Amino acid sequence: MVEKIDHIKDEINNYLNKEENVKEDWIEDNHPIDIAEALSELEASKINSFTKLLETEDLADIFEESEKDLQIDILKCKNSEEIIEIFSHMAADDITDILGLLPIQKRKELLRHMKQDDALVVKNLLGYDRESAGGIMTTEYLLLNKNLKTIEALQKLKKIAPDTEIIDTIFVSDDNKKLVGSVDLRDILSSDDEKKLEDLMDDNIIKVSADVDQEIVAQQVAKYDLTVIPVINKSGILIGIITVDDIIDVIEAENTEDLYKMHGVDEEESSDATLFQSVKSRLPWMFINLATAFLATFTVAIFEDVISQVVALAAAMPIVAGMGGNAGTQTLSIVIRGIALGEIDFKDNWKLLLKEAMVGIINGAATGLVTGLILYLMYGNYYLGIIIFMAMILNLLIAGMFGFLIPLSLQSLGIDPALASAIFLTTVTDVFGFFVFLGLARTFLIYLV
Amino acid sequence: MVEKIDHIKDEINNYLNKEENVKEDWIEDNHPIDIAEALSELEASKINSFTKLLETEDLADIFEESEKDLQIDILKCKNSEEIIEIFSHMAADDITDILGLLPIQKRKELLRHMKQDDALVVKNLLGYDRESAGGIMTTEYLLLNKNLKTIEALQKLKKIAPDTEIIDTIFVSDDNKKLVGSVDLRDILSSDDEKKLEDLMDDNIIKVSADVDQEIVAQQVAKYDLTVIPVINKSGILIGIITVDDIIDVIEAENTEDLYKMHGVDEEESSDATLFQSVKSRLPWMFINLATAFLATFTVAIFEDVISQVVALAAAMPIVAGMGGNAGTQTLSIVIRGIALGEIDFKDNWKLLLKEAMVGIINGAATGLVTGLILYLMYGNYYLGIIIFMAMILNLLIAGMFGFLIPLSLQSLGIDPALASAIFLTTVTDVFGFFVFLGLARTFLIYLV
User: What parts of the sequence cross the membrane (chains A, B) (predicted)?
Assistant: First the structure.
């Protein structure tokens, strides 16, 4: 992989040295995304020079596949006319994404320069939330009337196919333009010429409204093994489609987001972020963590008199808090994935809560027993062992219950359950863990000193 | 969603009460996966009775879309002949997956009962690792010779289309059966009748070997926006294809796996696991955690004399350890996702390591300053503030470096970086955090008491 990109980079440098226009052969032999990847490793001035050696259509292909940063680098050195020229080879939804990156002034200027029809489509798309079905759909679908005969449909398709990037699912509408079904190209191909699309189509199709969240769209596509899902407006009219390659991007993005959010990293931070971006992305979360860490510190501070009499408590207390945090995060992972995959059934909530509580008690008892034994051997006081045994059971019980309740509560409040779940949880397990262990120690202090 | 499934469940119960064969209309109106979902919520005896009301072909459709547990429930109440009958409506790769679930004895018996050709294909597929390209590929591809004219190709396709579930990418081979390109059905449709496939095909196609890990396959499909990827053997001959819906399953599975592994949950545990399964899945990890927690305890125990003189240290020390753990997990999330998405470039390793170290120092200084101030205000001793400030910088520096190095080291050892990364990391940040903070306290003890 890396070698392939390096090779393309060398060839780009060759073209640049010779100031020679890029050969069509070379474009065919290399995937636009690989060229984009190679380009992104070059300096801005070289990128600029190389774009001038490309046909606009090829540049548009590469541009579409580029990461945001490279797209901005390329746009910076082009005037509005050149940009409009690139746009003319691109799909409306990709143009919309790029306009979304630009300052409002530049965006308006470009929209003014575009053909009126195209501008209208793009303006319309800009109106949807970026993470909704409308925000990720493309308007390049194929819609035929249900009364067409297959031979007529085939003729239409033959005419359109070379020009548009149609996909192999054709949508079918009634006379009121309402979406009523879909038919596969291969079915049209193999049926009687005189058969109507209406008789051939599948009328039980999965569709989504434009305002549905992209995560829900992805769940539907994954569940029903779709390669394309139609997007309809309130009147049931087809306004766009979402293809499976865009769904994969959504799934990857949402998964990264979940993992990042759970651990307090900004969703925009990628592994090649700059130092400044990384600090900016992570420092706010560290301060939130610090605030909750102080809650734990204040809890311990209440028991300083107990610790000063039995210093062993200071050594043992991180075990109670830490094990609670670990157990709770296990529950958290299961519940967050369950929500993301649409598996958690809210009706059975109390059963699952009870199960997590039981897991907490059992795992707490098992690990607490071992912990108690080791502490007894270390300090020769079996009351210390009993106290930590009890504290572990209680803290893991709490951990299991909160690991389950926190993400579900956030979810029902409309907050992303991945966000902040972990921090709420460890705050609970730290504070409660220290409190219950040191509290038990104070209660039985006479047996410990 | 839930209502839809409940509705289907009611209708299944209706059919069961009336002991009436299921209507073809009903099958067409309901997606097999929804029927499977509704079935999985019924008792085994009802499932068994309902399967008898279905045409074998419809049962096969539902069976293919079922979760493992439901598949096993269905198979349990069928004899070998009935199972073979179901299999006859299924793709070889799906049959292979199911045979993989069965005890070896039952598997052999079923293979003996199958048609010899089919059995051979399945036996062959069983030979591949379940998580390799060969393990997830299907053998239902469409391969045509490059010398065919498009009109001949179309005739062939028309004949095959109604019988097989072909997809719209047709692969092209040379006279030695070697895969040389691919062509879209729509391109065949819109080209001259006399044109050869050779002149129409894209010869720069992305393909994988059968032994490639499924995660790599998913990366390729996602990167190049493919809807199907061909699988070849060592001689370059097409032996199967992987369609994008299976890739989505791979991506979902690998993501769940990463999140679970990071937090010590067995990859097989879903949100509806039983209590026993959950305990069994999570307890081993809790004991590993316990072992590392004791490393932290032993570290603190070395400094018990210091703590007994300055009890404030016991209250403050969880901050140093905890903040290190949080910072390290942020780095970990970024690196693990970077590896999973194929973004981490090993050449630039030292640059990224340096960046993470710098982020650690900066975030450590920022949060350490605030922590030091608050502790000074709490205990009126500014040496305590300075000590924790220094300890935080050092521990977050270590956290950033290990958060980066641990997953990359595991990766280069051939171990999944998501597995155990978090536990190694928090062990380091706990032990080092306590050690550096309490060590500094001992050094400057005279200023603290």
Answer: 283-303, 309-336, 357-376, 382-406, 418-441
